[in-house]
Design a protein that fits this description.
alpha+beta; Jelly Rolls; 4-stranded antiparallel sheet; disordered N terminus
Length: 251
Amino acid sequence: MQTTYYNTVSTTTRKRFSQDVGCISCENHNCLIKRNLSSLENSEINIDKSNLRCKKGQQFIIEGAPVNGLFFVLKGKVKVFRTGINGREQIVRFATAGEIIGHRGFGTEEYYSIGAIALEETVLCYFSKNDLQDILQANPKFAYDMMLFYANELNRSESKVKSISQMTVRERVIDTLLYINRKFGSNKGFLDVPLSRREYAEYAGTTEEQVIRVFSALKKEELIISKGKKIGINDIQLLKNEISEHNFYLG
């Protein structure tokens, strides 16, 4: 059985990749740990974590590896995916600073049901499964916030299923563009994460060829611009209007 990137590096390598950032000095105020820091500090449970640095394209969770803990994104961008039929990848979601990676297997399964890859140089905070379980049992507020987090995740997953079943290919691609814009924002007129056409397809639940066709049509309609991998949205409201009948936008 393969193990996670975290478990395959030596102690020396961990030190080379480490960037010691304590929870108190962390600026990710939307992080679940950071939000509960005051109540956690008052408990008798010791909060112990490791900081890991991943290079662009580095996989730090391997699908099927044993669940040993959770990763929180300190800074950077990550894609989370599952392997489907015939080895085809389906991107489940993207994550950025303050978000949790690996939670789907935490507490319910022995193995990670997803894989995760850094889209750029990324720094992660790693908390062991045993430490988090102790915190959850000892701290009702943290446990409640974790429950709300899982509820929101379930809602987003159900919305994703709904979009794939009810939206046309064009609508799914547009919804993906809007999701990427909400998640990462823009930089110099382009979405602030360079994704391949294949990655857009893997999130939208379609093929690379279909994404290329939709992008070509949107460019002709002057709704988007492109430069290599970079995609820019010219009119966000017009794209929103096109999928407004579905009455929701993915988070």
